[in-house]
Specification:
Structural class: alpha+beta
Number of helices: 12
Oligomer: single chain
Helix content: 25-40%
Distance between the termini: 123 Å
C-alpha cells in the first residue's frame, strides 16, 4: 500500500521525512562556515574608511625642522577632509573616503596633497590604506602603496619591514634574532606567545595596523585666537582715552574667553597712527588669564609708560593661542596660617604688575638645564608662579650625564651659589693658595668637574667653598691643567 505525502508549508517541519535524510543543497551552502584566516588572529577589516598617510622630510639642508611646519600642513589639509590627525614629529593621517570624488579620485587627491607639502618647502610620501596606521607605515617606506579594498590589506602589508612601525630598537633586535624582519612574519607568530615576549602594546599595534581593533585618533583642531580691530572717527592722544576706546574690545575678549573656558598667556595691543609705524604694547601673564578687569588694569599700567609718536587713529587687540583654564578653590586658611599657601594668586598678580610697570624684559624666571658646567646649567625663561608642589630637576646621587666625569658626593651636590659671575674672575695667589682682599680659607673638599668635550667647551676644574676675611662665602675653582690658576665663579647669599 502506498502513502502519498503532501508538501508542507515553507518553514514548517515535515513529519514524514526521515531524520537521516540530507538537507537541500541550497541550505547546505548557506550554512557553510567561513574559510579560516590566512594569519592566526587576523580578521580582514570591513569598514568603508580610506586613510591617507603622509610622511614628511626636509627639502633642503638648513631649513627649519619638519615638526615646526606639521601644524601648518594640518591646517592646509583640512580643505580635503575635517578628519585630520597629527602624528608627530613627521607625519599626519587623513580620512578621505568621502572626498575622493571632489578631487578626481586617488591620483587627483594625492597630487593636490603633494602640492600643499611643496608649498611649505617639504618633501612628502603619500600612501592610502583602509586603516590610518597602515597608511602611515606604508608612507614611511617611501614606495607606491594604494590599497582601497580591505580584503587586500594584510597581503599588501606582508613584505613591509618592521622598522616602519618604529618599535624600540631592543624589540626589533630581538625579533631579528628570531628571523622576524617583516610585518607578515610578525603576523604569523602565535598571539599569546608574542604578547608574553614583547608586551601587549606591540600586539595592539599589529591589531590596529590590520584593522582587527579600531584605531582612534585625536582630530586636529586649529588653535583659536582672538583678534579685533576698531577704527576711530577721531584721533586720541590721552592714555585714558585710548583705554576707554579699547573697552569694547576688552569686553568682547572676556566673552570670547568665557564661552571657551580658556585664558591667554599673551596679549598684544596695536595702536595705529596716520604716518608713523604702529605702536605695539605687549602684555605677558604668569598664568592663563581671562579676567577682563585685571587685563584692563595691566593694560592701563603698560599704556601709561608708552610714548606715542603720533595720535592714535585705530586700535587692535591680538591674543596668543588659547590655554585651557584649570579652576581650583581658594584655601580655607590665609597665607601663612595652618599651612596656607603663600604663593598663589598673590604671586601671580605681583609678577604681572611688575612686568606691566617695568617691562617684560625686566622680570624673568630661571630654569635649570641638564648640565654640569655651571655657566650652562641654567637659562632665562618667562616667569611662572609655582602654586603647587615644586618640581625638581636635580639628579639623584650617583646619576651623571653621558660623557661627564664628576667626583662630587651627595653632601656637595647642592652646594651651588645663587649669584654666578658672567665670567670667572682670576684671583691672585701666594704660595699656591688663592687670595681676595687677603687670604681665603677653604671650607670644603674639592668638587671635580670635567665635561664638555663633545662641543669644544671642555673644562677641568676643582671647585671649593671659601670664606674671605669679611666672612663672605665664595665659590672658587682651580684649573687642573697648567698653570693651575685660581678663579672666582660665584658668591653665596
Amino acid at each position: 500500500m502506498r502513502t502519498r505525502v503532501m508538501p508542507s508549508p515553507v518553514g514548517s517541519p515535515s513529519p514524514t521525512r526521515p531524520r537521516s535524510q540530507p538537507q537541500p543543497l541550497a541550505r547546505q551552502t548557506a550554512l557553510k562556515p567561513l574559510a579560516p584566516a590566512r594569519f592566526p588572529g587576523v580578521t580582514p577589516v570591513t569598514s568603508t574608511e580610506l586613510w591617507v598617510g603622509v610622511h614628511l622630510s626636509e627639502s633642503a639642508a638648513g631649513q627649519e625642522p619638519v615638526e615646526s611646519k606639521l601644524e601648518q600642513l594640518a591646517v592646509c589639509a583640512q580643505r580635503f577632509t575635517p578628519r585630520v590627525s597629527l602624528v608627530p614629529p613627521d607625519g599626519l593621517v587623513l580620512e578621505v573616503a568621502g572626498s575622493l570624488h571632489l578631487f578626481n579620485g586617488v591620483e587627483g587627491l594625492s597630487r593636490a596633497l603633494a602640492g600643499e607639502c611643496a608649498s611649505l618647502g617639504l618633501k612628502s610620501m603619500v600612501a592610502l590604506a583602509p586603516t590610518p596606521l597602515a597608511a602611515l607605515v606604508a608612507a614611511r617606506i617611501g614606495k607606491p602603496f594604494v590599497v582601497t579594498e580591505p580584503t587586500r590589506l594584510v597581503g599588501q602589508l606582508m613584505p613591509l619591514p618592521l622598522a616602519a612601525l618604529r618599535w624600540s630598537e631592543e624589540t626589533l633586535e630581538r625579533l631579528a634574532r628570531m628571523g622576524v624582519r617583516t610585518i607578515g612574519q610578525a603576523l604569523r607568530l602565535p598571539r599569546a606567545g608574542f604578547a608574553r615576549r614583547f608586551g601587549t602594546d606591540s600586539l595592539a599595534t599589529l591589531d590596529r595596523l590590520t584593522g582587527r581593533s579600531p584605531d582612534l585618533r585625536d582630530r586636529f583642531r586649529v588653535r583659536e585666537r582672538f583678534r579685533r580691530r576698531r577704527e576711530l572717527n577721531y584721533e586720541l592722544e590721552s592714555h585714558d582715552a585710548i583705554l576707554a576706546a579699547l573697552a569694547p574690545l576688552l569686553t568682547e575678549l572676556g566673552k570670547f574667553l568665557e564661552a571657551r573656558q580658556c585664558g591667554v598667556m599673551k596679549l598684544e595691543c596695536l595702536l595705529r597712527h596716520r604716518h608713523a609705524e604702529p605702536t605695539s604694547c605687549v602684555l605677558g601673564f604668569a598664568a592663563p588669564l581671562a579676567d577682563v578687569r585685571r587685563i584692563t588694569e595691566l593694560l592701563g599700567e603698560r599704556l601709561s609708560a608708552l610714548t606715542l609718536p603720533e595720535p592714535v587713529r585705530a586700535c587692535e587687540l591680538r591674543s596668543s593661542s588659547l590655554v585651557v583654564r584649570v579652576f581650583s578653590s581658594n584655601s580655607v586658611w590665609q597665607p601663612g596660617e595652618h599651612g596656607g599657601n603663600a604663593g598663589g594668586a598673590e604671586a601671580v598678580e605681583l609678577i604681572e604688575r611688575l612686568r606691566a610697570r617695568l617691562g617684560p624684559e625686566a622680570v624673568y624666571g630661571l630654569q635649570v638645564l641638564p648640565g654640569h658646567r655651571p655657566e650652562n646649567a641654567w637659562s632665562v625663561k618667562d616667569p611662572v608662579a609655582v602654586t603647587g608642589a615644586r618640581a625638581t630637576t636635580e639628579r639623584r646621587p650617583g646619576e651623571s650625564s653621558a660623557g661627564t666625569r664628576s667626583t662630587v658626593g651627595p653632601r656637595y651636590a647642592r652646594s651651588r651659589p645663587l649669584w654666578l659671575l658672567p665670567q670667572p674672575k682670576q684671583l691672585s695667589e701666594r704660595d699656591g693658595l688663592p687670595r681676595r682682599r687677603g687670604p681665603l680659607r677653604l671650607l670644603s673638599e674639592p668638587e671635580r668637574i670635567e665635561t664638555g668635550w663633545w662641543d669644544g667647551g671642555d673644562i677641568a676644574r676643582d671647585y671649593y667653598t671659601a670664606v674671605d676675611l669679611q666672612g663672605v662665602r665664595l665659590w672658587i675653582f682651580r684649573e687642573r691643567a697648567s698653570p693651575h690658576r685660581w678663579f672666582l665663579h660665584g658668591v653665596f647669599g
